[in-house]
Automatic annotation (TrEMBL):
Residues 307-405 form the Alpha-L-rhamnosidase concanavalin-like domain. It catalyses: Hydrolysis of terminal non-reducing alpha-L-rhamnose residues in alpha-L-rhamnosides. The lineage of its organism: Bacteria, Bacillati, Bacillota, Clostridia, Eubacteriales. Residues 409-757 form the Alpha-L-rhamnosidase six-hairpin glycosidase domain. This is alpha-L-rhamnosidase. GO terms for molecular function: alpha-L-rhamnosidase activity. It is an enzyme of class 3 (hydrolase). Pfam families: Bac_rhamnosid, Bac_rhamnosid6H, Bac_rhamnosid_C, Bac_rhamnosid_N, Ig_Rha78A_N. InterPro entries: 6-hairpin_glycosidase_sf, 6hp_glycosidase-like_sf, Alpha_rhamnosid, Bac_rhamnosid6H, Bac_rhamnosid_C, Bac_rhamnosid_N, Ig-like_fold, Rhamnosid_concanavalin. Its EC number is 3.2.1.40. Residues 760-839 form the Alpha-L-rhamnosidase C-terminal domain.
């Protein structure tokens, strides 16, 4: 058995990246050891060959090499593969060397020989652009540097190149255009070779954007640029590149669109070959890619074939997913098959009204050959597929769901004893998968599917626990920065902005600040702050300019805001903007973002900026206190979200915090402990409750199964997170067709609370990337057990707890190599486990009887609603209260009030001795 293992080598948080932006490589690795606990030294070698005979960089054995983010000082050449390995020495004298990893540079600053070309025929006709070239020598290696607009699939000699789809992805095409790099060495042969590029509309050229009457398009023509660099074994080289010698033909893709789907005619045959011409596109906009490609990450089989009451044939995949439905074609030549995609059924029938104008269809015309068929240049968000014009028996084995999302490593998992909570976690994970197709989108199915900044911001913390999203969000933030440059610091509400002209709003524009900060905390890589600092600063400066123009009160009083979007604290059912005053929310985010910019400036050694934005944050905070708080600490904005934001964003002076926390509890009690928060309040709600002594309420909010709450959709059969708390009503009816997505990750932000508070895995600002982290689990009897695993940038962290039958609680923790954890166990008074424990690498177990009972027991402080749900508890209470106040036993009256509440209110006259007698008897009742 290995004593030490070095593994999971990444460059810029990507395993073996080829053709990415790697001007300054950041190397990282993980270590597992049976005996060593810390890295005392490391050595990194970079070589031009896999045998490490031509080493171009050798750090030597050093004690200051950081395994989370090491930056070798090395000059890189274009189009070159570099191999690297690391040797690690442990504090017990052990050592180990990794297997070789590699990264391969792009063209970097090398000029393009290739030209953008476009077919010389009707630009609405989908083309195949191709060339033939001859190879007479033995090939050592070959690379293709490619971009096709809108979307493309490349093949060489009839075989698809690479395993990516929907390339080049979604970007601000008017600002920059990413190209991809493919290793095509194994696809080439001696003699004549053919390279073909199938092109589709995609986001660049197709119908896409919020203006559905006059769709905006980045471009009106298909376009391709390609350089194929071939190196022969004799050391010579050739370059094949796009120019007017290339040819085009009309493809079998008759039409394609992100929203409407695809029409593919396998009977279409046009042998005509058409010329190409030089396209009017700027080669200088081409840049290397920044994020992992979209791939088929999973395959699932149908759960059921349904015959609906209306006689439709519908395939139920059993999971709301994003991607394609591949099928085996057995239809005769000329037969048409049509697939329509939807998320839910209504009255047992196929339904897709909530998709608005998006057709979401796939039309296929058969060539009579038995083969696998799939779309190419679209994607669908669906659970149900209506099958039309299918001939013969519908065999589930003929269908496979191809699940598409960005190629991101899964890093987190949560399981509990509660199957509904487990499904909630999976719902959030599936919504992340379905909305992480190169851009963090709001939804994957209707005529929208855009990178809304607010949605991305509120979910970014949860996303970073579930998957390695550093490169993914790095590319999104790069787009955000490009869009921001032309807007004077203003951040569009959608990135890429496409046709959206609207100014940034609080909580949405703050994505420019909060997302890079979350990435820094989770991954410990300062490069994200270096990349985004001007953008972060620009957003806060933009808000300040609006503030100054309005009189400089250090409040953000004007402008449009979405507010606490889709909250439930307004009477008007058509009001989507929430009941929390927008100026209050805007000013809160103003202060919060300024504070983060100050922290980022300090990390980047920008001392003057750090002080400037710290002072600005404090000025805004003081203005908020003056405007919205009374001298005794009463908050003038009386909503759940207002209290949550005040506490989370540190707007409340220390002497008022208990009062504000009390008012939040009071507000929740008014709603019988059901949330009313929307997009801006929900991410922080349970985190604030757990931090301010109301962990019990946080768990209650989590485990409520009725509306509104996280588990209500689960009880309704949801397999992803809904856009609205009541996207579907209890009777199974869809609540609103105008804006109602059944795959919308925003409210899945509760997952971050589960990781951070329930499991207690928390990053710390002074040691980001989990080099050091806090473990502060907070169990509660509403869950009997919880198991959280997180593959952090520093290694796998496990936090596991179980509430035992005797009321004791057991914990298990796993601390990764070369890290330390600050452990704070809950309710340890009198156990000898009080205080903060510093844990180094290893496994730890603790079992003790907590000061507060973790095993649920009934008592006189239990809400009467819960008492009434247990027959034995109800009998005990009835025996004591029937003569005095039997009318109080009715749950519709008592509700959340307990016997002791009635005593305090003067509605019951019971002495303490009797109350204790009732407590004693109730404590022996088994909780059902």
């Amino acid at each position: 058995m290995e004593m030490m293992r070095v593994y999971n080598l990444k460059t810029n948080r990507i395993k073996n990246p080829m053709g990415f932006v790697i001007n300054k490589p950041k190397l990282s690795w993980l270590v597992e050891s049976d005996t060593a606990k810390h890295q005392v030294a490391a050595q990194v070698e970079i070589s031009a060959d896999i045998n490490f005979e031509n080493i171009i960089f050798d750090s030597g054995k050093r004690t200051d090499i950081d395994s989370i983010s090491y930056s070798p000082q090395v000059e890189l050449k274009p189009r070159t593969r570099y191999y690297w390995r690391v040797r690690v020495w442990g504090d017990d004298g052990s050592e180990a060397v990794s297997e070789a990893a590699w990264f391969e540079t792009s063209k970097m600053d090398e000029p393009w020989k290739a030209k953008w070309i476009t077919p010389d025929f009707d630009p609405s006709v989908h083309p195949v652009v191709f060339t033939d070239f001859s190879i007479e020598r033995d090939v050592a290696d070959a690379r293709a540097y490619v971009c096709g607009l809108g979307l493309y699939e490349m093949s060489v000699n009839g075989e698809k190149t690479g395993d990516e789809y929907l390339a080049p992805g979604l970007v601000a095409y008017d600002k920059w255009i990413p190209y991809q790099t493919y290793d095509i060495t194994s696809q080439l042969k001696k003699g004549i070779n053919t390279a073909e590029f199938l092109l589709g509309n995609g986001w660049y050229k197709g119908r896409y954007g919020l203006n559905r009457k006059q769709p905006f398009r980045y471009g009106n023509e298909f376009a391709l640029i390609c350089e194929i660099h071939i190196t022969y074994q004799d050391g010579t080289a050739d370059v094949i590149y796009t120019d007017t010698s290339w040819k085009a033909r009309k493809s079998k893709v008759i039409d394609s669109g992100i929203y409407d789907g695809e029409i593919y005619d396998d009977t279409f045959c046009d042998d005509a070959v058409y010329p190409v011409r030089i396209a009017d596109l700027d080669v200088n906009k081409l840049e290397p890619r920044r994020s992992p490609g979209i791939k088929i990450k999973e395959r699932i089989k149908p759960a059921e074939i349904i015959r609906t009451p209306e006689g439709e044939t519908v395939i139920d995949m059993g999971q709301n997913m994003v991607g394609w439905l591949e099928f085996t074609n057995r239809a005769p030549k000329g037969a048409e098959i049509m697939l329509q995609f939807g998320e839910v059924l209504q009255d047992g029938n196929f339904y897709r009204d909530n998709l608005r104008t998006a057709k979401c269809e796939f039309h296929y015309i058969s060539d009579g050959k038995v083969k696998k068929v799939r779309p190419h240049f679209t994607f669908y968000g669906f659970r149900y597929v209506k099958l039309t014009k299918w001939e013969g028996e519908v065999n589930p084995e003929d269908f496979t769901g191809l699940v598409l999302y960005s190629d991101l490593e899964r890093t987190g998992n949560i399981t509990t004893d509660n199957s509904l909570v487990n499904r909630l976690f999976l719902n959030a994970l599936w919504s992340q998968k379905g909305n992480f197709l190169d851009v963090p989108t709001d939804c994957p199915q209707r005529d929208e599917r855009m990178g809304w900044t607010g949605d991305a911001q509120v979910f970014s913390g949860a996303a970073a626990f579930n998957m390695d999203v550093f490169a993914f969000f790095g590319k999104y933030l790069y787009d955000l920065k490009q869009e921001q440059k032309a807007r004077g610091g203003n951040v569009p509400v959608v990135v890429p902005a496409h046709d959206v002209k609207q100014n940034g709003a609080c909580g949405w524009g703050d994505a420019a600040v909060i997302i890079p900060w979350n990435m820094y905390l989770h991954y410990g890589d300062v490069s994200i702050l270096e990349q985004q600092y001007k953008s972060m600063k620009g957003w806060v400066d933009y808000i300040k300019s609006k503030d100054d123009a309005a009189g400089g009160r250090r409040l953000w009083l004007n402008d449009f805001h979405y507010g606490d979007w889709l909250s439930l604290d307004v009477e008007d059912p058509f009001n989507r903007f929430g009941g929390t005053e927008h100026a209050y929310l805007a000013s809160a985010f103003y202060s919060y973002s300024a504070g983060i910019v100050s922290k980022a400036a300090k990390i980047l050694n920008k001392k003057e900026d750090a002080e400037y934005y710290r002072k600005l944050s404090e000025e805004v905070k003081n203005a908020i206190r003056k405007e919205y708080f009374t001298p005794t600490g009463r908050l003038a904005v009386n909503t759940q979200t207002a209290y949550v934001i005040a506490l989370y964003m540190d707007l409340v002076p220390d002497e008022w915090k208990e009062r504000v926390a009390f008012e939040l509890r009071k507000k929740l009690k008014e709603t019988k402990y059901h949330l009313r928060t929307g997009f801006l309040g929900t991410p922080y709600l349970c985190r604030v409750l757990s931090e301010y002594g109301s962990n019990d309420i946080a768990y209650r909010l989590l485990t409520n199964t009725d509306y509104p709450g996280w588990l209500y959709p689960v009880t309704m059969g949801a397999t992803t997170i809904w856009e609205r708390w009541n996207s579907m009503l209890p009777d199974g009816k869809v609540s609103d067709t105008g804006m109602n997505s059944f795959n919308h990750y925003s409210y899945g932000s509760i997952v971050e609370w589960i990781y951070r508070n329930a499991a207690g895995i928390q990053p710390v600002e002074d040691a980001p990337g989990f080099r050091r982290f806090r473990l502060k689990p907070q169990p509660h009897y509403l869950l009997k057990s919880l198991d959280a695993e997180f593959l952090s940038p520093a290694g796998k962290i496990i936090s596991r707890w179980n509430i035992n039958e005797n009321g004791s609680v057991s914990f298990y923790f796993r601390i990764p190599f070369n890290t330390t954890a600050e452990l704070v166990l809950p309710d340890t008074e009198g156990t000898g486990l009080e205080g903060v424990h510093e844990l180094e690498c290893g496994e730890y177990t603790y079992t003790y009887m907590p000061k507060r009972p973790y095993k649920k027991m009934y008592g006189t402080d239990t809400p009467m609603r819960e008492i009434y749900e247990n027959e034995r508890a109800k009998e005990i209470v009835t025996a004591y209260l029937s003569e005095m106040a039997g009318w109080m036993l009715f749950p519709m009256f008592a509700g959340e009030r307990s016997i002791r509440d009635f005593v305090r209110e003067g509605l019951l006259q019971i002495d303490e001795k009797t109350l204790k007698e009732i407590d004693e008897k109730l404590s022996k009742v088994t909780v059902e």
